């Protein structure tokens, strides 16, 4: 399982071709994307708003993807 379902969802649904494109799409630094993906930094409200502004995902959909990623991560840790 890849570390963060939210970032992967954005790539899989063609909003971006990879993490480099996510940097531009979401107006975040490469290190921020990397830290989110490696679970060193949680997705915060600013990140959620950036994703909302750049895509047609609702806040509820974004939060659902974050919850999904958290649940999958917890399942892996067990």
Name of the level-1 CATH class: Mainly Alpha
Q: Tell me roughly what share of residues is in helical segments.
A: 55-70%
Mean pLDDT: 86
What is the CATH architecture term?
Orthogonal Bundle
In what range is the share of β-strand residues? under 5%
Overall shape: it is globular
Radius of gyration: 12 Å
In short:
The chain has 78 residues and is mainly alpha-helical.
Structure write-up:
There is one protein chain. The protein contains 5 helices and no strands. With 78 residues, the chain is mostly helical. The longest helix has 19 residues.
Labels describing this entry:
78 residues; 434 Repressor (Amino-terminal Domain); mainly alpha
Topology:
Blueprint (H helix, E strand, L loop, with lengths): L4 H8 L6 H8 L3 H8 L7 H10 L4 H19 L1
